[in-house]
């Protein structure tokens, strides 16, 4: 599995910064093998809302609030790479979904996400907030996701070796002995 930790520019950041962040993220997501699992997590400073019909397959029916402009960038990148936001999939109380508190309004929002490939959604058991785990140094809450990762080892095919049998008595003949020595020196060189 490939784990990517990200911190996206805030809503107030310049558009160029946002575009550069998502271009860099796109570059990283593109080089990951298609067979590999992706666990993308972090503070994306985006509220994806709850429009699960418009973003079918990317967000579930358990989203929160209204979307903000940063959400379009995140959601379109998720659609492009067939990713799903796990925070919006499972039904749970809002207090276990919201991760960040707005400094002025004191309203809680869903800003931090754990995102995986859509095909790996069956591996997620739960994604939720752990309240009180890090209240002293940040205005965001710690997220936790419990998932099962099944690793399938691919066996490489070994090249078939050709075995030659030599009759030891034949080495007494000088020609056979020279041929065998030549053969060995070629193989060991």
From TrEMBL:
InterPro entries: Endo/exonu/phosph_ase_sf, Swc5/CFDP1/2. It comes from the Eukaryota. This is Endonuclease/exonuclease/phosphatase domain-containing protein.
């Amino acid at each position: 599995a490939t784990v990517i930790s990200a911190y996206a520019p805030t809503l107030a950041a310049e558009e160029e910064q946002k575009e550069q962040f998502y271009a860099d993220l796109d570059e990283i997501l593109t080089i990951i093998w298609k067979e590999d699992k992706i666990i993308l997590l972090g503070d994306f400073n985006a509220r994806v809302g709850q429009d699960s019909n418009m973003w079918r397959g990317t967000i579930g029916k358990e989203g929160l609030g209204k979307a903000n402009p940063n959400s379009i960038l995140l959601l379109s990148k998720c659609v492009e790479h067939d990713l799903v936001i796990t925070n919006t999939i499972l039904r749970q109380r809002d207090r276990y979904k919201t991760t960040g508190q707005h400094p002025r309004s004191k309203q809680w929002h869903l800003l931090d996400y754990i995102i995986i490939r859509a095909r790996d959604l069956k591996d997620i058991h739960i994604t939720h907030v752990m309240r009180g785990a890090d209240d002293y140094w940040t205005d965001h809450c710690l997220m936790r996701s419990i998932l099962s990762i099944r690793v399938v080892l691919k066996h490489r095919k070994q090249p078939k070796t050709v075995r030659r049998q030599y009759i030891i008595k034949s080495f007494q003949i000088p020609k056979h002995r020279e041929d065998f020595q030549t053969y060995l020196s070629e193989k060991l060189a």
